[in-house]
Write a structure and sequence with these properties.
The complex is a heterodimer. In chain A, 35% of the residues lie in helices and 13% in strands. Chain A is α+β, with helices and mostly antiparallel strands. Chain A has 2 domains: 5-31 and 255-290; 42-248, Alpha-Beta Plaits. Residues 22-29 of chain A have low confidence and may be disordered. By secondary structure, chain B is α/β, with parallel strands linked by helices. Classes of the chains: A alpha+beta, B alpha/beta.
C-alpha cells in the first residue's frame, strides 16, 4: 500500500481551499455586530476620585453573598490579593511618585459578554436587566468563560469537588431584591460607586468630566471598550495603570461569532472537509485495487 | 488638687450626686434620658434595698475596683443607695458580731435582699478550702441564696471560677451559676470588673425591679455586648498592620496595636475601651498592655497571656493589592529562545548519533 505524495498533497490542498472558501461563499452577511446597550440595563459607576479605599464594599460584598474569608499568611486579615473563588469584589491601589489611585475590580457585566458567547451550555446568561448571571444547574465546569473573559473575572473553585464559578452577579439573588441595589453600592460611604441604569450613569459620568475636566482622564471606561460594559469607570490616572485593558470598540464575541458562524453556515465547511477526506480515502482504495 | 469630690470635706450627699449617678448610669445602660427621673426616684426611695455581700476565694480586687469608681463613690452607694447588711472588708465588726448581723439581715429582709458574691466557691473535699465562721463557702452560699431576690456575681471568680478554676483547679473552684440554679444570677465578669457595670446593674435592678438582659454567659448585654477589638482606640494601627513586636520598642512607644503581644481584644466582649476604669478613663490597652480576656470564660486564665488571639471577624486590612500583581507565569523571548536552542541541539545530537548506529535490518 502506498499513498502517493502527490495525491496526498492534492487532497490536502483541496480540503484547505474548501475551508478557506467557506466564508467567502457565505459572504459577510453573517458578520455579527456587537450587541447594543439596552435602556433597561442596570450597572454601576465607579469614580476613583471619590473612593477613599475603606474597603467597606469588600466587607459588604462578602457579607451579602455569604463568601468565606480569605486569610493572609498572618491569619488575622481577610486580605485577598486578587479576585478569587472567595472574593468577587476587591479594591486595589495603583501608586507612583505623583500619587495613588484606587480601583474596584469586579465583573464588568459587558454589554456583549464573551463569557456568555463562549459558554457551550448557556450556563452564563445576560439577563434582560443587563446583569450577567451564572446558572449552577447548567454549568458543566469547562471554564471556557474564564478563558474568554478579557478582564480575567470568573473564578473557579478548584479546591471543591463540585466547583462553582464565582463572579459578581450584582447581588441579583441577595441584596438587589431586598435593598434595591447591590451590597457594595449600598455600603459605599462616599458614593464612589453608584448603582443605576447604565444610560443615566453614562450621562452622570460625562457630566462629571465636563464639570471638572482637570481631575479626570477624558474617557469613560466601559462606554465603548470591548463593545461597552455595564460597570463603567471614571479615573484620575490612565486606565491601563489600573489594570483595565485597552480594548477595541467592538466586542470579542462579535469577532469570534462572526468567524464561527460563517464557518459552519449551512455546514459548508464540514462538508468540504469531509468530502476532501473521502476523496483521499477513495483514491487510496482504488490504488489498492490496481495493484 | 483633688480630682472629683473630696470625701473628707464633702461627706454630705446632695441631690446633685443622685442626678449625676442617674445620668451616668442611664448612659452606661444605653437608656433614654427619659428614664433619668425614674432612676432618681428609685435611688431616692426611703426603703433602700438590702444587700448582702459575700467574699469567698478571691483577692478583694472587685471591692477595690468599686472603691475607685468615678462619679459616685462607694460611700454614696452603701450609705444612700443601698443598705449594705454584710460585707467582710468594709464592716468594722468581726467574729460572732458580724455573723449574727448576717443571720439577722437574712431574716429581716427574707425574699427581698440582693446577694452579691465575690470570689469562687471551692467544691472539692466538701468545700473545706474556704471556710468562714466554721462553715464552708458552699454552705454559706446555699443558706444566703435561699431567700434572696436576685444574685449578682461580681468578678470572673464568682462568674465561673476565675483564676482559681484554671488548670489543674486544685480546689474545684466554680462560679455561682454552677451551684445556684433556682435564682436569677447575673455575672459581672472582669478581673477586676468595671465598677460602672456593677453600679449600672444595681441601678437597673432598683429602677426596673429586674436584672438586665444578659447573654448566654449571664453577662448583661449593655456592658458585654461589644467586641473590645471593634471599639479599641488602637484599631487603626491593627488595620494598617502596625504592631508592637516587643515591649518598649518603637511601635510600643508610639502606641501601636498590641495584637502580636497576645492581646485578646479580638475575641473578648466588654465595654472597657468605651468607659474605661477609675477616674482617668484608662484601661489596660490604653496604658500599653495587651488585653488578657478576663471577661471571657474561655479566654482569661485559660489561654496563656502572650498567645496570639483568634480574630473572630477578620476584615480587610488597609493595605492594598496592586492593580496587576507580578506573576511567574509566561516566558520571556530570551528564555523561550534558550529552551528552543537547547531542544534543537539535543535533537541534532540524537539524530547524528542515530545515523552512526548500524542498520540491523539491512545486515
Amino acid at each position: 500500500m502506498e499513498i502517493k505524495r502527490r495525491n496526498f498533497l492534492k487532497g490536502l490542498a483541496g480540503a484547505g481551499a474548501g475551508v478557506a472558501a467557506a466564508p467567502l461563499i457565505s459572504g459577510t452577511a453573517l458578520a455579527r455586530e456587537s450587541k447594543k446597550l439596552q435602556e433597561d440595563h442596570v450597572g454601576m459607576l465607579y469614580d476613583n476620585t471619590r473612593c477613599v479605599g475603606c474597603k467597606s464594599c469588600e466587607v459588604a460584598c462578602k457579607r451579602a453573598n455569604n463568601l468565606p474569608v480569605e486569610l493572609d499568611a498572618s491569619g488575622i486579615y481577610d486580605a485577598p490579593r486578587d479576585l478569587s473563588e472567595k472574593t468577587m469584589n476587591i479594591i486595589k491601589m495603583y501608586k507612583d511618585e505623583e500619587g495613588q489611585a484606587y480601583v474596584k475590580r469586579q465583573c464588568m457585566h459587558c454589554v456583549d459578554p464573551s463569557c456568555v458567547s463562549g459558554c457551550p451550555v448557556s450556563a452564563l446568561n445576560k439577563e434582560p436587566n443587563g446583569i450577567v448571571t451564572w446558572d449552577p444547574d447548567a454549568c458543566c465546569g469547562c471554564r471556557y468563560c474564564q478563558m474568554n473573559c478579557p478582564f480575567n473575572i470568573p473564578k473557579f473553585q478548584y479546591n471543591d469537588f463540585y466547583g462553582r464559578i464565582v463572579k459578581c452577579e450584582m447581588c441579583i439573588n441577595t441584596n438587589l431584591p431586598k435593598q434595591g441595589q447591590p451590597a457594595c453600592t449600598e455600603a459605599c460611604p462616599n458614593d464612589a460607586v453608584i448603582f443605576g441604569k447604565v444610560t443615566s450613569l453614562l450621562d452622570e459620568a460625562k457630566r462629571r468630566i465636563k464639570q471638572s475636566p482637570h481631575i479626570y482622564v477624558n474617557q469613560v471606561y466601559g462606554e465603548k471598550e470591548g463593545g461597552g460594559t455595564s460597570v463603567i469607570y471614571l479615573s484620575k490616572v490612565p486606565f491601563e495603570k489600573l489594570g483595565l485593558p485597552n480594548l477595541p470598540d467592538h466586542s470579542q464575541a462579535s469577532v469570534s461569532e462572526s468567524i464561527q458562524h460563517s464557518l459552519y453556515q449551512g455546514l459548508i465547511a464540514p462538508i468540504v472537509i469531509y468530502a476532501g477526506l473521502a476523496a483521499i480515502a477513495f483514491k487510496n482504495r482504488s490504488g489498492d485495487k490496481e495493484e | 488638687m483633688i480630682l472629683g469630690k473630696n470625701p473628707l470635706v464633702d461627706s454630705k450627699v446632695k441631690r446633685r450626686d443622685f442626678l449625676t449617678l442617674s445620668t451616668k448610669t442611664a448612659i452606661a445602660l444605653g437608656l433614654s434620658p427619659a428614664f433619668i427621673p425614674k432612676m432618681t426616684k428609685a435611688l431616692e426611695k426611703k426603703e433602700k434595698p438590702a444587700v448582702i455581700w459575700l467574699h469567698f476565694q478571691e483577692c478583694t480586687g472587685c471591692t477595690e475596683s468599686l472603691l475607685r469608681a468615678r462619679g459616685v463613690d462607694l460611700a454614696t452607694l452603701i450609705l444612700d443607695v443601698i443598705s449594705l447588711e454584710y460585707h467582710e472588708t468594709l464592716f468594722a465588726a468581726a467574729g460572732h458580731q458580724i455573723e449574727d448581723q448576717l443571720q439577722a439581715a437574712m431574716k429581716r429582709y427574707a425574699g427581698k435582699y440582693v446577694l452579691v458574691v465575690e470570689g469562687s466557691i471551692p467544691t472539692k473535699e466538701n468545700g473545706h478550702y474556704c471556710m468562714i465562721g466554721g462553715r464552708t463557702a458552699m454552705e454559706i452560699l446555699k443558706e444566703t441564696a435561699e431567700n434572696c431576690a436576685a444574685i449578682i456575681a461580681i468578678g470572673s471568680c464568682a462568674s465561673w471560677g476565675g483564676v482559681q478554676s484554671s488548670g489543674p483547679n486544685p480546689t474545684g473552684a466554680v462560679g455561682v451559676q454552677s451551684l445556684i440554679t433556682n435564682k436569677p444570677v447575673v455575672n459581672i465578669p472582669g478581673c477586676p470588673p468595671n465598677p460602672y457595670n456593677f453600679l449600672s446593674t444595681v441601678v437597673h435592678y432598683l429602677t426596673f425591679n429586674k436584672l438586665p438582659t444578659h447573654d448566654k454567659q449571664g453577662r448583661p448585654k449593655f456592658a458585654y455586648g461589644t467586641l473590645i477589638h471593634d471599639q479599641c482606640e488602637r484599631r487603626g494601627h491593627f488595620n494598617a498592620e502596625r504592631f508592637v513586636n516587643e515591649f518598649g520598642d518603637e511601635g510600643h512607644r508610639r502606641g501601636w496595636c498590641l495584637y502580636k503581644m497576645g492581646c485578646k481584644g479580638p475575641m473578648t466582649f466588654s465595654n472597657c475601651p468605651e468607659i474605661g476604669f477609675n477616674r482617668y478613663l484608662k484601661w489596660p490597652v490604653a496604658i500599653g498592655h495587651p488585653c488578657f480576656g478576663c471577661t471571657e470564660k474561655a479566654v482569661g486564665y485559660t489561654i496563656p497571656l502572650h498567645t496570639k488571639a483568634e480574630v473572630l471577624n477578620p476584615n480587610p486590612p488597609q493595605v492594598y493589592a496592586r492593580p496587576q500583581e507580578p506573576t511567574n507565569q509566561g516566558t520571556s523571548l530570551v528564555a523561550a529562545g534558550a529552551i528552543g536552542a537547547a531542544i534543537g541541539v539535543a535533537g541534532t545530537a540524537i539524530a547524528v548519533k542515530a545515523k552512526k548506529l548500524p542498520d540491523s535490518e539491512e545486515e
